[in-house]
Write a structure and sequence with these properties.
heterodimer, A: alpha/beta, D-Maltodextrin-Binding Protein, domain 2, 2 domains, three-stranded antiparallel beta sheet, 13 strands, about 10% strand, B: MetI-like fold
């Protein structure tokens, strides 16, 4: 009994020492500067395990976590051309799975890769408050790269377009509309270019006997719903590197209300369905003719091939997303970037990898053609080769002629430093609005309150 | 002289018992080490963590038990708890009654068919929970599942299994499907250990098979029934895997904090609220212990655990 007590108390003592030192670490970090710390141990990764095979021996390694398709080929290409550094790559799961691994490594204070793939909407949560886990690349000259990328994504990685640069953009998801030309032709309905026309066309299709729906509104679409509201100039989230302790939440604006009222009406009329997004069922319904359009990010364009149960008579085309009026901005949904972590063994070299990895025509070529990434590199977006690419899936339409201008015109918008929480709350309220006919004004007001309260509880100041 | 003798014997038995004690410790050591390392230490650590509160801007500060008062007044936690209690109220009796009926039926028909059905009912338990839930997710699908076409044959619409109204029944079904066979096997083996003479004398007294099943077999295995109920109760209060997997199909129907365990997971891994997550886990553990203790006390007569 006594012995076990002693063991238990020793354990508690050890743990408290661990915890106290952990807290102490965070404190000293924030005292030094408002930035994540940098390191310079070139040999620390010598025995790192990689998913790719590194041929060059005795060269400094930089570890990378990324889930891009065809990543191995791009890593091999990069390593072939570099004698000063070799990328040691691991696929640590995609999206949320990888973020959970980041969270675990951050808590453990070890085990995080030097460079990690992060989507634009999660960058701010690794930059704010005590969670400064990605390095400001400005100190390594990243701000000079801004003109190589589209304005919108640069705005996202710099958190507001200032001097700080927290990641190097890779791909993006310009918002467009894919539609089934065959369905519109069959029922003699005009392909909509505005949201008013979209509603009209949806009704017409149903009246003329189309068994499916014109499209789907996804209450659980996360980023897609931020995008839909942004398209009506509603700025629901605000956060910038310039004011890292402040957040803005604004779902109560007229713009946000108008968008949600629109989708509530369409759902109520039965013009659109309100299925959940990104499920196997959702993908199938896109290709099997249940929906005549999919208003979505460009990355969906490449993911429709090879889904089983597809309607073989489908004639897909890509068009700009429907607009509210002539001043509707071009918007984006999704995309990702490479960030350097505070656990990078040799921060400077890691920054070099993040900045230069995709800065090569051959790798960009693989990224565009084999990974299916929609580029953020202006040089590619402007090139004729890219603009003239045709795709048999879209009846040899030069789809980049439609998508590239959206990518260029996108200005960027902000995400909260606790975006996963905000998305989950968003989903609950939007579901209630479109499925249960909840009062739009009241629901958005309560969403605003929930998120503002959470922000305050987390120590942020909420902009009024 | 006799007193010396007694003293001597007592001495010897003490040394023997000490030696036996040492061996006893030696044999329990592997368990004890693992128990300490993987249960006691993590629990202590989790409790310690739960005494701190974290905010994104200010980091971690000691806050004593304030997280607990927050947890027990947290509407999300309370709603989740209420939800699993409703699940328990429905799911535990359903599984228990089904398992008992199956065990009694299989026990009374002793032929090849009974051993085959025993295996068949037990099979779902052999399938990993995640795989089972994935499979049901597919079966429930309106687009890809078989029910749409099966109901279609009769000109009917398949029920919306994964709708807000249908999800409760769908989840109850998945769990019942998976666990009933397991409980049945426990009850069936309890029945096997009942001496046949009791049944014979009951038959001689003119008891029917139904009477034997209800009035003799069931009371005799009461302690196993209590055990199975406790298993099922704890499992239901800790409800996690099945809703977590089905959530991939319908994220808007199953909220991330659908059950307390899911809430703890979301807090820790999606919202970076590790300290509060530890509190929720501990609070849930506390309630599970409470429920189990109350249930064991209520059934101490049946379980034979009364002192």
């Amino acid at each position: 009994m006594k012995k076990s007590m002693r063991i238990a108390s020793t354990c508690i003592a050890c743990l408290s020492i661990l915890l106290v030192s952990a807290c102490g670490g965070a404190d000293s970090g924030s005292k030094e500067a408002n930035e994540a710390p940098i390191h310079s141990d070139a040999k620390a990764n010598n025995n790192a395990k990689c998913q790719n095979t590194i041929k060059k021996q005795g060269v400094e390694k930089v570890t990378v976590w990324a889930w891009y398709p065809a990543m191995e080929k791009m890593v091999d290409t990069f390593n072939d051309r570099h004698d000063d550094v070799q990328v040691c790559w691991t696929r640590a799961g995609s999206g949320q799975t990888q973020y959970q691994k980041i969270a675990t490594a951050v808590k453990a204070k070890s085990g995080l890769a030097d460079v990690v793939q992060v989507e634009y909407d999660v960058i701010s949560q690794y930059v704010s408050g005590v969670e400064k886990h990605i390095v400001n690349l400005n100190q390594f000259g990243a701000d000079r790269l801004s003109n190589k990328f589209t304005k919108g994504v640069w705005n996202s990685v710099s958190l507001g377009g200032g001097k700080s640069v927290y990641a190097i953009p890779v791909d993006q998801g310009p918002y467009i509309m894919m539609y089934r030309k065959d369905i519109f032709d069959k029922y003699g309905v005009k392909v909509p270019t505005t949201w008013q026309e979209y509603e009209q066309a949806g009704k017409e299709l149903r009246q003329k006997g189309f068994q499916g729906h014109i499209g789907n509104y996804e209450p659980s679409g996360n980023g897609s719903n931020v995008t839909l509201i942004a398209q009506n100039k509603g700025k629901v989230y605000e956060y910038s590197a310039a004011q890292p302790d402040k957040v803005g939440v604004n779902f109560t604006s007229q713009e946000s209300k108008a968008v949600m009222e629109y989708w509530q009406r369409l759902a109520k009329e039965g013009t659109v369905t309100t299925d959940d997004a990104y499920t196997a069922e959702w993908y199938k319904k896109i290709v099997d003719g249940s929906w005549a359009t999919a208003v979505c990010a460009s990355w969906l364009v490449g993911s429709l091939r090879g889904i089983s149960g597809a309607d073989t008579s489908a004639n897909w085309k890509v068009a700009p997303a429907p607009t509210w009026d002539s001043s509707t901005p071009s918007v984006n949904f999704g995309g990702s970037s490479l960030a350097v972590t505070d656990q990078a063994k040799d921060t400077k070299m890691a920054a070099k990898v993040a900045m230069e990895f995709f800065d090569n025509p051959d790798i960009q070529q693989i990224a565009v053609t084999e990974s299916g990434l929609f580029p953020t590199w202006t040089a590619i977006l402007h090139s004729d080769a890219f603009k003239n690419m045709t795709d048999p899936f879209y009846g040899d339409q030069k789809i980049n002629n439609v998508i590239a201008p959206v990518a260029m015109a996108y200005k960027g918008y902000d995400f909260l430093p606790f975006q996963p929480y905000a998305y989950d709350e968003q989903t609950k309220v939007f579901t209630d609005i479109v499925r249960n006919g909840a009062d739009v004004s009241g629901s958005l007001q309560s969403l605003n309150t929930t998120l503002s309260n959470y922000a305050t509880q987390q120590g942020f100041t909420v902009k009024q | 002289m006799p007193s010396v003798n007694v003293h001597h014997i007592a001495m010897r038995s003490r040394t023997v018992s000490r030696k036996e004690n040492a061996w006893g410790w030696f044999f329990t050591a592997p368990f004890a080490v693992i128990f300490l390392l993987f249960l006691v230490v993590p629990l202590t650590y989790a409790f310690y963590v739960s005494l701190f509160s974290y905010t994104q801007l200010r980091g971690t500060v000691f806050s004593g038990l304030s997280n607990y008062s927050r947890a027990f007044t947290d509407p999300i936690f309370i709603r989740g708890m209420g939800r699993v209690i409703v699940y328990a109220v429905v799911m535990v009796p359903v599984q228990l009654i089904l398992a008992l009926v199956l065990a009694l039926v299989i026990d009374s028909i002793k032929n090849r068919f009974s051993s085959f059905s025993r295996l068949a009912f037990f099979l779902p338990y052999a399938i990993p929970v995640v795989i089972g839930a994935l499979m049901w997710g597919f079966l429930y699908s309106q687009q890809m599942g078989p029910f749409t076409s099966i109901f279609g044959i009769f000109g009917m619409k398949a029920p919306a299994f994964l709708s807000p109204d249908g999800i409760f029944g769908s989840l109850v079904n998945v769990v019942t499907w998976q666990w009933t066979g397991y409980y049945m096997v426990i009850l069936y083996s309890a029945l096997q250990s009942v001496p046949q003479e009791i049944y014979e004398s009951a038959r001689l007294d003119g008891a029917s098979e139904l009477q034997i099943a209800l009035k003799i077999k069931t009371p005799i295995i009461a302690s196993s029934l209590v055990m199975v109920t406790v298993f099922s109760l704890i499992g239901t209060l800790q409800f996690y895997t099945e809703p977590m997997i089905l959530r991939n199909n319908v994220p808007s129907v199953i909220a991330p904090e659908y059950t307390p365990n899911m809430y703890a997971q979301a807090l820790a891994f999606n919202y970076n609220q590790l300290n509060y997550s530890a509190t929720i886990s501990f609070a849930l553990g506390l309630l599970v212990v409470l429920f189990s203790v109350v249930f064991m006390r209520l059934t101490r007569h049946q379980s034979g655990l009364e002192d």
